[in-house]
């Protein structure tokens, strides 16, 4: 029994944070997940309130911002080479339409 409890305490945090740094976003009842293309997201969610492209010969980042259901919440999406990599939800009065590249954070 003690081994089972120990394993639960060990495994639950790992399972709870397995999709770390990815907030769930739904559009038209469908879940927007990592790996979804820009075209699919725009088809499901419509045009973003903000969009910026950062491009060089090696990779392309596209930053998009969508209004969330809350009064002042926003979803911040980062696409790398056309596919969704990070989706973050920021709440009350975040102010900006774009945030720093989350892939550069520690």
TrEMBL record:
Domain of life of the source: Bacteria
InterPro entries recorded: DUF2845
Protein name, UniProt field: DUF2845 domain-containing protein
Record lineage: Bacteria, Pseudomonadati, Pseudomonadota, Gammaproteobacteria, Legionellales
């Amino acid at each position: 029994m003690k081994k089972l409890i120990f394993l639960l305490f060990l495994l639950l945090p790992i399972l709870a944070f397995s999709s770390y740094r990815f907030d769930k976003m739904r559009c038209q009842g469908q879940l927007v997940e990592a790996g979804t293309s820009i075209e699919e997201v725009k088809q499901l969610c419509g045009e973003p309130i903000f969009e910026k492209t950062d491009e060089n010969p090696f990779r392309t980042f596209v930053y998009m911002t969508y209004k969330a259901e809350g009064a002042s919440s926003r979803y911040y999406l980062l696409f790398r080479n056309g596919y969704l990599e990070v989706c973050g939800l920021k709440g009350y009065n975040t102010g900006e339409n774009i945030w720093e590249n989350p892939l550069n954070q520690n």
